[in-house]
Design a protein that fits this description.
Length: about 80
């Protein structure tokens, strides 16, 4: 989780680390937020994956950049362009 938190901070998102995962916020629209967790995904051989607070899979835990792109994308405000 620390690697993902550092990556998201580099994307200029607000990140707070918690025992259950990391809370990620859009710094310009703080109501756009999510708690991202990391856990085994049974339908993928119990490999570790990042998940949204809605239990949607984001990316395998070793795919930090892919996870960052996805998270930044869904936390963008409609008036903003997502950065890749």
């Amino acid at each position: 989780m620390a690697a993902l938190a550092a990556h998201l901070k580099g994307r200029e998102l607000v990140v707070q680390e918690h025992p259950d995962g990391v809370v990620v916020r859009n710094p310009h629209h703080r109501e756009l937020a999510d708690t991202v967790t990391c856990r085994e995904r049974p339908d993928d051989g119990d490999r570790l994956w990042f998940f949204t607070s809605w239990n949607d899979p984001i990316a395998e835990a070793d795919r930090i950049t892919d996870a960052g792109v996805t998270i930044a994308g869904y936390l963008k405000y409609d008036g903003e362009a997502a950065e890749a």
